[in-house]
Write a structure and sequence with these properties.
The chain is an alpha/beta fold and 257 residues long. It contains 12 helices and 8 strands.
Length: 257
């Protein structure tokens, strides 16, 4: 099985590194020269990675093609290429639906969507995939696991939830700035907050309850400051603002609320 990655940004880098450090027995992995620095580094680090001469050459060599392009260029590029019916075409692009992808490749091959996160490089995050496919199951199970979804609406929900990485670090930066304004050194506040959130995430990962409300209650002493901050956050509209931001992101991905 030969894999091709059309677009060589962070997600391609992460998926390829995850595969090349797993026991996935790939034949060859072809990457496009779009970001030559990332492509060169992957080819230098892993003997199974080859840089294609151009995008059409990559398609000609690949059995499964992963589309990892910016939204602004993906239509023009895909409509200029020729695909084969025996290939599988997998989009990493948030707004590229299966229907739209199929039209842009002239219905030449079966199409899929996947939403890997950067942590697949270390085999640490499961990847939502739609529709279900045995080859994609084999690939993503090697780099952290797979979430096989029954419809595209479910996939879009996971795609939206995966867009919380930026706001997580933005939220952390607000806390970090608050601590520094009150006299903390940047290194001290950064290490404290990063380790605090690491421990909380680890605790959630270990739980068998699958209930964030129960975890919130467990870590919020009645009448204490944890409970106070949650109450004030809700009263001042923080939860509504976050929900609105998620709705807007979902609309950006799907075109509907």
């Amino acid at each position: 099985m030969k894999l091709g990655f059309l677009g060589t940004g962070m997600i391609t880098d992460s998926v390829v590194r995850g595969l090349c450090t797993s026991d996935f027995l790939e034949d060859k992995i072809f990457v496009s020269p779009r970001n030559i620095d990332i492509a060169d580094k992957l080819a230098s680090d892993f003997s199974s990675v080859k840089i294609a001469g151009d995008n059409q050459e990559l398609l000609d060599y690949s059995d499964i093609v992963f589309i990892a392009l910016r939204e602004s260029v993906v239509e023009g590029l895909l409509t200029s290429l020729s695909f084969r019916k025996e290939q599988k075409i997998v989009s990493f692009v948030p707004t590229l639906t299966c229907m739209k992808l199929s039209v842009w490749i002239n219905h030449a091959a079966p199409v899929f969507r996947a939403a890997p996160l950067p942590f697949v490089a270390e085999h640490k995050s499961a990847t939502p995939v739609f529709p279900v496919d045995s080859d994609l199951r084999m690939i993503f199970e090697k780099i952290g696991g797979i979430l096989e979804l029954g419809n595209e609406e479910q996939f879009n929900v996971f795609m939206t939830a995966g867009s919380l990485m930026g706001i997580y670090f933005y939220f952390s930066r607000i806390l970090d700035s608050w601590m520094q304004r009150r006299g903390m050194e940047s290194k001290e506040s950064f290490l404290y907050l990063s380790r605090l959130f690491f421990c909380l995430a680890h605790k959630a990962f270990q739980t068998k309850q699958f209930d964030f409300r129960a975890l919130q209650k467990h870590f919020s002493t009645k009448g204490g400051t944890n409970e106070l901050i949650v109450r004030l956050f809700k009263e001042k509209g923080g939860d509504k603002l976050l929900s609105c931001a998620l709705d807007e992101a979902f609309f950006h991905i799907t075109g509907s609320f």
